[in-house]
Amino acid sequence: MSNETSIVVVDDEPSIRELLVASLHFAGYEVETAASGSEAIEVIEKTQPDLIILDVMLPDIDGFTVTRRIRQEGIDAPVLFLTARDDTQDKVMGLTVGGDDYVTKPFSLEEVVARIRAILRRTREQEQDDPIIRVGDLEINEDSHDVTRAGKPIDLSPTEYKLLRYLMDNKGRVLSKAQILDHVWQYDWGGDAAIVESYISYLRKKVDDIEVEDEDGATHKVQPLIETKRGIGYMIRVPKN
């Protein structure tokens, strides 16, 4: 997985998609595209982008509905709306459903790139201010190094903590054993990939093997978050509500 910022462009007009893709590639971003609302949801769930450029008027599901659905699924990537109407009600609606900014068509590519940079800068500043990293009901407090799942404390070793944080920082993205070795063990380990498998197993027992009580008093195990992609690597999957 590249370290470049990833963006999903959603617009039903091929010419607009092509222009945005070319401009964003030139600006150094990774780009995926979708031509409809339903395709957008599928691509966004699969790629877990850093930002979404989303046309309001789509042939099947409008951009506002797409935003509501991805927010319900826990996807919090910022959304830049594209709208053909310079309408205050549209702009208010976009911000109300979870959008971050809007650009009115026709737009300049320079303006779009400038808005993207401003949104990403603002988002990253907010993330730095919040010491809590969350994926579903799993939380890490970066200030205290406390880890909880469904409100229950989890005791992790320093290496387990570093591995879990790396997975959570890249939620929804598959990380190879080589990437994990490089980030978690760096130069302190000889490079044996088996150590990654062992520590993933340790984490699973501590993070996914937890019982919680529902409203009726019945107990059940939490939804597993750590997933193996055979032959590729590991990931923390964003849970669906």
TrEMBL record:
Residue intervals of the Response regulatory domain: 6-120
GO-annotated molecular function: phosphorelay response regulator activity; transcription cis-regulatory region binding
CDD domains named among the record's database cross-references: REC_OmpR_MtPhoP-like, trans_reg_C
Keywords in alphabetical order: DNA-binding, Phosphoprotein, Transcription, Transcription regulation, Two-component regulatory system
Cross-referenced Gene3D superfamilies: 3.40.50.2300, 6.10.250.690, Winged helix-like DNA-binding domain superfamily/Winged helix DNA-binding domain
Domain of life: Bacteria
DNA-binding region range list: 130-238
Keyword Protein transport: no
Residue span, OmpR/PhoB-type domain: 130-238
Example of a GO cellular component annotation carried by this entry: cytosol
GO BP term, example: regulation of DNA-templated transcription
Family matches, as Pfam families: Response_reg, Trans_reg_C
Modified residues (4-aspartylphosphate): 55
InterPro entries, A to Z: CheY-like_superfamily, OmpR/PhoB-type_DNA-bd, Sig_transdc_resp-reg_C-effctor, Sig_transdc_resp-reg_receiver, WalR-like, WH-like_DNA-bd_sf
Protein name: DNA-binding response regulator
Taxonomic source organism: Bifidobacterium pseudolongum subsp. globosum
